[in-house]
Amino acid sequence: MTVKIVTDSVADLTHRVINELGITIVPLNVRLGNEVYRDGIDLTAEQFYDRLTHSKILPVTSVPSPGTFAEAYDKLAEETDEILAIIVSAKLSATYEVALQSIGLMKQKCRVEVIDSQFGAAAEGLVVITAAKAARAGASLDEVIDVTRKAISRVDMRAVFDTMEYLKRGGRIGRAQAFLGSILNVNPIITLKGGVVEPVGRTRSRDKAIDYLYDFAMSYSHIEEMTVEDAACPEDADLLVERLGSGFPKERIYRSRTTPVIGTHTGPGLLLVAVLGDK
Predict the structure, then answer these.
(1) DSSP state, residue 186
(2) Per residue in 46-57, pLDDT tens?
(3) Quick count: other Cβ atoms within 10 Å of Cβ 242?
(4) Given this model, what pLDDT does residue 182 score?
C-alpha cells in the first residue's frame, strides 16, 4: 500500500499540489473577534488580509484539536497501513505535539510516524512535496522517512518583510528581535534555523531586498525544487519568478500564498523564497 502523507496548513501548499500528490492537510485555526476559521478553508488569503488591514481586532491562531488529527489518520488508515505526518517546527507551534499525541486516539490500526519539519511556510511545503513524491513512487514508510530527513537538511529559505511587528506580537520573532528598534526604512531578511527565526541581513529598500532573494536562490549549484511565496504582494512575487526563470525553469517554480495563520504572524508584504538543493 502507498504511504500517505499528512501535513498542516502552515505548509502553504496549493490545491493543485495537494490534489496531484494526494496530501492530506490538517488546518490550524484563526480567530478574528468571536469567529473561528479553519486556516485556508473557511477564510481565503484575500479575505483575511483585507480584514487584517481594516480591523482593529488582532487575529489569534490556535492548533488543531487532537481529534482533528486522529480523524484524518483514521480516514487514511482505511486506504493504507503506513502514514507519515510532517509538521511545522515544534519551536514555532504546538501542532507537532498534538499530531503526535493524536495517534493514541485512533480507532483504526495503522503505523503513524510524525516528523518535525523544522520549518514553516513554503520551506515546510518543499519537505512535504519531496516526501509525497517518494511515497507516490512506491517507497516504504521507512524509506520516505529517510528521504524526508535528507530533504530537511537540504532545504533553506529567505524571507523579506515590510515590518517585524507581527512576528513580535505573535512571539515568533526569535533572534530577529535584534532588528526591532532599528532605523526606519530598513527591510529585514530572516530565515529559519533549527526551527526558529534567525536574522540574516537587512537592506535599505524593497528592491534591494528582492535582489537579495534572487541572489540567494541563484547561489545554488544544483536546485531540485523552488517555491516563491507572498503575503498580499503578488506583483513582487510574480516579478521575482520571472527573474528566477533565467537560472531555473520558471514553470517548475511553485507559486504559493501564505494562509491566514502565517499571515497572522507576518502581516502583509512578506516575500519568501524556499529552495531544495545543493550550494
Answers:
(1) -
(2) 888 888 888 878
(3) 11
(4) 47
Q: Provide the grid cell at 133.
A: 513524491
- The domain ranges of the chain are 4-154, 155-278
> Is domain 155-278 in CATH 3.30.1180.10, yes or no?
yes
Q: Which has the higher per-residue pLDDT, 261 or 166?
A: 261
What letter would DSSP give residue 11? Answer: G
* Rounded-to-10 torsion of CA 104, 42, 195, 129: 80
Q: Residue 169: pLDDT band by 50, 70, 90 thresholds?
A: low
pLDDT of residue 25 exceeding 90, the answer is: yes
Helices (H), the chain: 15-21, 45-54, 66-77, 95-101, 121-136, 141-154, 165-170, 206-218, 234-244, 260-266
- For residue 206, give the C-alpha cell: 524593497
Q: Per CATH, the architecture of 4-154 is what?
A: 3-Layer(aba) Sandwich (3.40)
